[in-house]
Amino acid sequence: MTTATLQEPAAGFQALSLSPPILAALNRAQYFQPTPIQAALIPHALTGRDVIGQAQTGTGKTAAFLLPFMNAWHDTSEPGPQAVVLAPTRELVVQVAQEATKLAPSKQFRALAIYGGQRFREQLIELKRGVNLVVGTPGRVLDHLGRGTLQLGRVRYAVLDEADRMLDIGFRPDIERILRHCPQQRQTLLLSATLPDAVLRLAQRYMHEPHHINLSPEKPAVDSIRQSYFTVDEDRKFDLLLRVIDRENPRQCIIFCQRKRTADLLYRDLREQRKRVATMHGDLAQPIRDRIMQYFRDGKIVCLVATDVVGRGIDVTGISHIINYDLPEDADNYIHRIGRTGRMGKDGVAISFVTPEEGERLTQIEICVNMVIRQDQIEGFESFRPRVKVQEEAPKRAAPVFGRPVKRYSRRL
Ligand code: AMP
Predict the structure, then answer these.
(1) Calpha distance 336→222 (Å, rounded)
(2) Residue in 202, 185, 181 with CA at minimum distance from that of residue 52
(3) Which atom of ligand 1 is nearest to 59's Cα?
(4) Are 351 and 400 within 8 A, CB to CB?
(5) Separation of alpha carbons 10 and 370, rounded Å
(6) How far apart are alpha carbons 339 and 314 in whole angstroms?
(7) 27 lines ligand 1 (CB under 6 A)
(8) How far apart are CA 126 and CA 123, in angstroms?
(9) Helices H / strands E in the chain, number of each
(10) How far is the CA of 271 from the centre of ligand 1 (A)?
(11) Residues 6 or more apart whose Cβ sits within 8 Å of residue 317
């Protein structure tokens, strides 16, 4: 183990009784103050008990669940990983492994990301060299367990990151099987933005008297994000997008589409018109996705056309704009999408394209974010053809009532 000397104490973290090598790593990463989830979760996890942390992405939850394990880690040349983190998407897995490497207490500490789409052989070589922390998608971790190329018999720290999302994707049987490969005498942490029954059942079965920390605000924290929508006909969306990009001049933006095919077509058209455009969706080969993610993180890509599967996990602080080229099907997804901007206290802009048929969906989103989203327009550009003739007296538009249950109604845009 290297003994790190602490030059500039990571002031806020010292109160959490972290070891000098960890404090030194925090200094190098320029993390000087713990975020609320870190301040709340780390002390409980350091006592060795199981913890459920309810927190949104972008709040520093990754370091919150990594630090307690890394703090206790010593280089004993123990074979096999001593910790395993399961996460729902490949991108998230890569991010968690990168964060672990960034905050590692010593050069000997090795974290490995394993996920589908990446060659088995390479993962195998790395696993044979010996790793301390495995971060993986459940499917690929299970593959390795089945082939006998990964053993979890020495795991003393297991983390389920974005547990609600993993269950959405249908990972439940995989998660359960993986946890059964880990010793019962282990510490388990579960992180989730929401705590639906399925997550609580998982917690009951696999955790021991967990301490519960809830830092998810009652209403999602989207206040710092400037939100607006355009009413737009489907066949005017592309022209509108070009105008919005010109007007907003985003530092970096994600343009969300509902389907892979729409993402592909939009990418094809957009790259003819604008520079530094890329697309990312589940059909692309993993090495390509990794490369695009890296380019995006490095700021080489300005507009990333993405689907939800890959877009949700992206944590890039430079994202100034989220454009919902297609409105998401449910309101929670809207929150997850727009949460890619406005990270770590920065301001962000979220612009949604809403077709005249999607009024009710917009209303559901407004109820969820507890605000009326401002209608936007571009001077001189007609984004939709009015369907109804001008009436003598404009019909009164029902407004959503916030703060109490709201009846569903359909709304004409
Ligand atoms: P996460 O919610 O774990 O995805 O973290 C969001 C971003 O915050 C990541 O880019 C982290 O590197 C960064 N971060 C996490 N903790 C801190 C901290 N205490 N101070 C500054 N940045 C942090």
Answers:
(1) 10
(2) 202
(3) 2
(4) no
(5) 37
(6) 10
(7) no
(8) 5
(9) 16, 14
(10) 32
(11) 343, 344, 346
Residue 392's pLDDT is 46
Long-range contacts of 104-107 (CB under 8 A, 24+ apart): 104/25, 104/70, 105/1, 105/2, 105/4, 105/19, 105/21, 105/22, 105/25, 105/70, 105/71, 105/73, 106/1, 106/2, 106/21, 106/75, 107/2
- Domains along the chain with CATH numbers: 3-214 (3.40.50.300), 225-375 (3.40.50.300)
For the ranges 97-101, 210-214, 378-382, the maximum mean pLDDT occurs at 97-101
Q: Are 378 and 228 in contact (CB under 8 A)?
A: no
393 CA from centroid of ligand 1 (Å): 52
Task: Write down the pTM of the prediction.
Answer: 0.62
Structure tokens at 100: 């672990």
Centre of ligand 1 to C-alpha 34, Å, is 9
Atom of ligand 1 nearest to the CA of 33: 19
Smallest CA-to-CA distance from 115 within 89, 133, 150 is with 89
Question: Does the beta carbon of 62 sit less than 6 angstroms from any atom of ligand 1?
Answer: yes
Instruction: State whether the beta carbon of 307 lies less than 6 angstroms from ligand 1.
Output: no
Closest residue (by CA) to atom 20 of ligand 1? 31
Q: What is the mean pLDDT of residues 155-159?
A: 97
Atom of ligand 1 nearest to the CA of 56: 2
Q: By alpha-carbon position, which residue is closest to atom 21 of ligand 1? A: 31
Q: Is the CB of 63 under 6 A from ligand 1?
A: yes
Is ligand 1 within 6 A of the CB of residue 344? yes
Residue identifier of the C-alpha nearest atom 4 of ligand 1: 58
Sign of the alpha-carbon dihedral angle for 331, 337, 339, 341: negative
Q: pLDDT band for position 388 (50/70/90)? A: low
b/e sequence 48-74, b meaning 16+ C-beta within 10 Å: eebbbbbbbbbbbbbbbbbbbbbbbbe
Q: How many CA atoms lie within 13 A of 319 on its CB side?
A: 31
Cα 93 to ligand 1 centre (Å) = 15
- Regarding the beta carbon of 328 and ligand 1, being less than 6 Å apart is answered no
